[in-house]
Amino acid sequence: MEALTNHLPTSLKDSLPINGELYVGNMPLNHIEKLVSHTPFYAYDRQLIINKVTQLITTLPKEISLHYAIKANPYPSLVQLMATQVTGFDVASKKEMLLALQTGMAAKNISFAGPGKTMQDIEAAIIAGVTLHVESIGEIAKVKKIAEQLHIKADIAIRVNPAFELKSSGMKMSGGAKPFGIDEEQIAQVLMNLPLAQVNLRGFHIFAGSQNLNANAIICAQQQTFALAEQLITLTKKVTKLEIEYLNIGGGFGIPYFSNDNSLDINAIAGNLQTLLQQYKTISSNVEVILELGRYLVAEAGVYVCKIVDKKVSRGTTYLVCDGGLHHHLANSGNFGQVIRKNYPVAIGNKFITHKSNSICSNELKVQPALEQVNIVGPLCTPLDILADKVKLPKANVDDYVVVFQSGAYGASASPKDFLSQTQLSEILL
Ligand SMILES: Cc1ncc(COP(=O)(O)O)c(C=O)c1O
Fold it and tell me: For this chain's UniProt record, which GO biological process terms are given (predicted)?
């Protein structure tokens, strides 16, 4: 248990503990349930998100622009909140693009990346004035054709698949053969053939990977990104006479999910960025440098909450069977890119216990409840539907809440909600 709750963000730890009941945004779970009418639900804490973004912006060099990658959590109220916190959005589909535009974010601060954009996606982006991050030579040809038809010059940036990869990353998205971006070695050729009457090349996008907790690996990738970007900016000037306006250096910042994970050292990353901005004057004096983050900004501000509907013992193992599971929270079940399944931090939401040792909160339960080891599962007829495996928690019963922390990113929208046509899911920003 100590390990499971060890990494909760301090602000969440501080807001937790009133009589052993979990609060989100100053509201106890049973009130949230009444608001949304049922379990399961995701609840996101507005203040935690604001705190996280503010802390990051304060730490980063002031020249760095922060964008939010909507794919991490596209819940409309949350995206609306992010529009007041960051200076731009990264979108991965036409629907995300429309969501971003509806917040009032200026189109020039919205970038549309991702392989496999359809003619309709490209058409909509050009009409809206959003910058298309082109991912292949074929995509450039499509953009040219549609821009010609629309008589609108398309704003584009080239997504580059660099030769290097982001080491220690949960998800590597560069280096070697990849469906993302245009290989670094092909960029000179692409620049020579760029249809300049139809496209305006604004920048480059180098996104190396996701969920990285190793600051040194991120620093190393950023050093390589700046070096490559400087070459590309110089090359662009030579070949096309164009001045590059922006450089999107991706992100990859991870958050701690598991007991051995440590929080990312943001100070080290910020210090390195400051050094890079001093070192690469071509970039720092003329080019907007954008950091695009999803998970890091929102993951720790969200919980997934479901209810125990059955408690049973099978050959000595106690199961808590809940009304929610894999279909709402695929990542927590271990089926969203994990090689070996590990438990996210979980708690019984109305019997939340705290530990003096890691000072999770000030108000401890007066009486320590009895603990028992349980397997927490969902209602789906598959052994993959796991919420937590072999965890020691306060003795729980039917109708108690099971809470999964660190659930604000890649939760609801990254899960197969219709699988087995189970109970509806709600989301709320508090
Ligand atoms: C192009 C791009 N930008 C941003 C992100 C967001 O990454 P994260 O949520 O890890 O910050 C991703 C994630 O895959 C991505 O592919």
Answer: lysine biosynthetic process via diaminopimelate
